Amino acid sequence: MLAFIATRRPEVSLVLAGLAIILVVAFFMPLGVATRPGAVLANADVQRIATAVTRFYVDLRHFPVCSGKDCNPIVTAGPSRNNQLTFLAVGDWGGDLSRRYPRESASLSVRWDLAARDDPSAPARNNAFYHLVANDPNADGIGDRRDYLQDGRRGWNGPYVTQFGFDPWGHAYIVSVGAMEPNGMPIAPHARGWILSAGPNGVLETAPDAPVPGGDDIGMILYDASQSGP
Asked: Taking 70 as the threshold, does the pLDDT of residue 27 lie above it?
């Protein structure tokens, strides 16, 4: 399982991560995916999302995992813990994307349960737009010190992507950020840092802890915190 390793030089980290993305996408591409309508676009979108999340990590030294009214600073433990975001959904703009979450296969032994796992107080916080395009992780429409750190070289320096959209079949991409963050809140034990499209059938057939995509899903594992070591 791949986990990219941050060095002390952000530019080196970004180059290594970029190479890792290419290798992982090539390795995890489902058999015959190149012949499926929309698959090339979905694969390109997955790489674009991976690059955006990687750039965010290089700048802030953590992934976009904040769920709370105050995201500065990120607190990883205790009663004020605020890095409890388990996943991000990627769509075409801001707002609550829960109506565009893909369904999941009833045969999965480990479930995503996306609608049950989004932020109950403000589901829009699960929208990647507020983390990667705008620095507004609490989705309150206000740019203030409660958002992600903005402090010179070690702070939010986005937007990290300029083009967002649903997958070619009209569903949100799912980014399992909770499993990417070493002190995060993964979907399930041993979950991996997937970036996924549910593919042409619109059904997630890849379990959160799966090592390879299932069914016609298209995606990659960007970072597996469980394999990153101390």
From this structure: no
Rounded-to-integer distance, Cα 219 and Cα 198, Å = 9
State the total domains in the chain.
Answer: 1
Asked whether residue 2 is domain-assigned, the answer is no
Beta bridge partners of 102: none
Question: SS3 of 222, please?
Answer: strand
154/142 Cα distance (integer angstroms): 21
Strands 103-104 and 193-197: unpaired
- The answer to whether 203 and 105 have CB atoms below 8 angstroms apart is yes
**Top-confidence residue, 173 or 121:** 173
Structure tokens at 67: 């769920």
Integer Cα distance of 19 and 37 in angstroms: 26
Q: What's the sign of the alpha-carbon dihedral 208, 211, 217, 222? A: positive
The verdict on residue 87 lying in a domain is: yes
Q: Is residue 161 part of a domain?
A: yes
In a domain, 43, yes or no: yes
User: Which domain range does residue 60 map to?
Assistant: 10-227
* In contact, 195 and 173? CB cutoff 8 Å: yes
